[in-house]
Each structure stands twice: as structure tokens, then as C-alpha cells.
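Lab notebook, bench 4. Continuing the backlog of folding jobs that were queued last week. Each job is logged with the same field layout so the records can be merged later without manual cleanup. Today's entry covers Tetratricopeptide repeat protein, a 568-residue chain. Filled in by technician R.K.

JOB TYPE: sequence-to-structure
TARGET: Tetratricopeptide repeat protein
LENGTH: 568
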Amino acid sequence: MNGRKDQHEHGTHGRTEPTLGDIDHLGAPAPSGPDDGLPKVTLDPERRRPSGSTASRTSRTPSGKRGWLWPLLLLVVIGLGVTLWLQQDRLRGLVPNTELNDVLGRAEQALQDGRLDGNDGSSARELFEAARALEPDNDRARDGLRKVGLAEVARADAALNAGQLDQAEQATNSARELLGGGSDVDRLAQAIAKARGASVETGALVDQAQQAMTDGKPEEAGNLYKRVLAADPGNAVAQHGLDKVGDALAAQARKAIESGDRAAAGVSVDRLAALLPNYGELPSLRAALVQDQKADNGELADALKQGQEALRAGRITDAGDDTALARFKAALAIDPDNADAKAGLGQVAQALIVQASAAMDGGDNAQAGKLLDQASQLAPKSADLVAARAHLADSAKRANTAPRNVSGEAPVAEEAPATLTPQQSTELARMIQRADTAARHGDIMLPPGESAYDLYRGALAIDGNNETARRGLQALPGLVTSQFNQALANGNLAQAGERLSDLGDLAPGDAGQAELRQRLAGAWMDQAEQQLARGDRANAAQALNRARKLAPDNPRLSVIAAHLQAGG
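JOB STATUS: finished
OUTPUT FIELD FOLLOWS
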């Protein structure tokens, strides 16, 4: 028994079966012993136990000693699977994918050709999205969709600049979907919304312009059409509307020229030049206006000259055509806005006031009243006229309240001064004070009832001989002249024009107004040139019209008008 055991342990005589041995000793060094040239194996301890036969030992070995290999092999397989799963992207890149590459190539070509989006499967967006369906994490497909989004932004910008709001909005929406928003997408959305609002506004402006044409207001319609074209340069309705405006203004100018209304004709031509500097009939209209002006100027100059000669000769209002009144009225018939003719009528009124004062001094109040009535038709707001009427009314009142003399006649007015009640005296003082304040504040003719002019008149109605009220009223023309100069120096041309108009009412015969008109006209022409330099043609035309009314013969007018017609 021991011998068989030894023989089994050393493997020198009996049959043995090699095994891997105990897993705990796997990898341990083999036991030392003589090298007999045979493979060394390690016997399972269970094999050392006595057994009835070799076959019985062999039958127990596979089931009891080799089962531990299977878990080891399973772990190896699982490890290899995890490794392959983690490296799938790298491994996939090593394997050619013909279908994916073909889709990406076609997508990039569509992007290059500008076929950004569509429904037939051939657009860049559709193809890049198809590539992502094949491989969701593909970098080329992801970057391609980003490029399509940027191309949609560029397409939206181009459509917006061309006024194609629907196309611009469609491209912006696509860009938002592809890029997920962003500053460019927000900018486009805001610009489209603003453009749509402007489109609604231009539609309303077109309606207003058409209504203005129906109402016979072509200049107003022209300005509205210009606003439409500023917001929408390609608006065909506004362009056609401006052509109609040009025809209407040209017709107005021709009608004014034919009727001899040179001032109205000049205004229509200037408005036409401001709105449509390239209007075809504009040169011929200007030529006709100049020719008509030359003819009128000769007749106008003769009428003004004859009026001044009659005034110096004392032929004021007598019957016939050779009086100052008749000749100045003839001048106004030629040019209704002629300042020299208006000033001539003011001089006639002043002469009548002087004659009325002389009649009052002579006690002929009836004749004085007649003369003042004539003067009021020519210069109803003259300060001297108001003072003279107050003096006449006060003289009549004193004459009526004075006691009769032995012959039954009323004494001379100065012999019976009127007496004021305490209440009248208080009201008179208060009214004069308010008038002085209004004059200093520049409230000369307005507001009604509270102007210096009306308050001084009210004071004279209480006491027609009150020297303070009369001096205050007759000092208004000098005060207005000072305020005119101040407004002109400050560049407030509108206010200077108001003061000049006040002066024309208060002292219509004052010869110094001609120089004031020339100064104001020069300032308006300066402003017109400045506005033309800035491209503000509409306001330049208005400034030029104001200058023409003040100084129609100023040679600068034609120069500025030519610049206006030529576009500045």
C-alpha cells in the first residue's frame, strides 16, 4: 500500500492524470525533485486517498475540480464586452460607413449651393438631419446644421433689406430652430416686427395723402407721400401719388400766372421744386414766372412812383385816378402782397389822421370824424388813429356836458374839461399799469383784451385826453422795433416776423419798415441756404417763400431757387 502510494506520488510506474491543482496554489512553484524529463504535475490531495481503482478516481475529477474555470472565463468575456462598448466610437471610426459619408457629402454640397431648406429631401438641413439619424453624435452633421442656421441668418438679413418681410420671418424662424436663438436671431425678429409696424403706418399715411389730394391740399399730400417713401423707398403708390402732386402744383402755378397773381404762382413753383426737383415742367414754369414778373414789375413800379408823387402833391383821396389812394390801390391789384404798396396806403391813412387832427383843432369835429373814418379803412389798428379817435370822442363828450353860452352855442371843448369819478380814476390807473406790463412782455397786439394795444385803448376810452395812455400807445411802434431787432439778433425769425406785422398795424406809413423787411428777408434766405446744405428741401422752400413775400425783388431769391430746383 505504501509502495503504491509512493509510486502514485512520484509518477514513475503507475498511470496518472495531470490536473491544474488547487486554485489557491495555482502559480506556486513545483516541488523539487529529480528531473526525470516528464512533465511535472500537482496532484489534488483527494487523489492521495486510497481508492478501489483508478477508474473511480478519474470519474470524480472533472466535476469536482474543474468547475472553477467557468466563472473566470465569464469575467474575461464581460471585461472584453465593456471595453468594446466604451471604445465603440473609436472603433466605429475605423470601420468605413459608405451610406453616412454619402449623405454628409450631399448635405455639404447642398449647403454650398444655397439649398438650405425644403421638403423634397435634397436640402442641406434635411440631409444633415438624416445624417444625424444614422449617427446621432456625428460631429460633421452637428456642425453642418449650425452652418445652415448661420446661412439662414444671412438669408433673413437679405430679405429684410429687400423689404420681403415674409421671407425674412421664415428664414429667422429656421435660424432660431437650428441655432436655438441668439443675438442675431433676436435682432432680426425685432427688425421684422418694426418693419411690419412701419408697413402699417405707411398704409395709413398713403390713405391720408390721398384724402389730402381729394381735399385740394397737394402740398400736404406731397409731404405725406415723402414720408412713405422715406420708410419704403419702393412704394409704387407713393411714387405715383407724388406725380399727381406735381401735376396739381403745376396747374396751380399756371392758373396763378394767367390770373396775374405772381406771389401765389411763385409759392406754387417753389413748393413744386421742393417736392419734385426733377419735375419736367418746372423749368418752363419758372421761365413763365420770370417773364410775368418782368411785365408786372414795370407796371408796379410806375404805380408806386405815381402814388408817391400824388402824396407829396397833396392829392390824397380826391376823386379821380391821379390820387395817392388810387395809385397805391392799383399797385396792390398788381401784387396783393407788395409791402411798398401797403406802406403807401399807410401813408395815406397817416395823412388823413393829420388832417383830422387839424379839423378838431379848428372845432370841426364832423369833418374830423369823416377823415378818421376814411383812415380806419386803410389802417384800422394805427396807434395814431386810436389816439385821434379817443381825442375826438372826449372832445364831443365835453362839448355835450358844457353849459351853453348866451347864444346857445356850446363853448370850445377845452373850456369844459371832463371830470372823472374816483372809481374811473382807479380803473384808469390800473389799466395803464397793466398796459405797460403787457408792452414790456411783448404782448403788443395779442391776446385780445389783455394786449398793450387793447389796454391803452381801454384807458383812452375812459379819458381820451390822458397823456400817459396816449404816450404809451403812440410809443408802441418804437418798442416793437426794439423787440424786432432783439428777436432777429437771437435768430428767432418767426418772432421777428410777428413784431414786423405788429409794426405794420401800428404804424403802416412808417418808411423805416422797408429796411426792416429787407433785413428779415435776408435772414430767411440765410436759413434757406443752411437748410438746403443739410438736405432739408421742404423747410428751405418755406423759408424762401417767406423771404419772397418780404422782398420779392431781392436778387438772391433766384439764386437760392435755382439751388432748390437742382437739389441743393
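OBSERVATION: The first helix runs from residue 2 to 10.
SIGNED: R.K.
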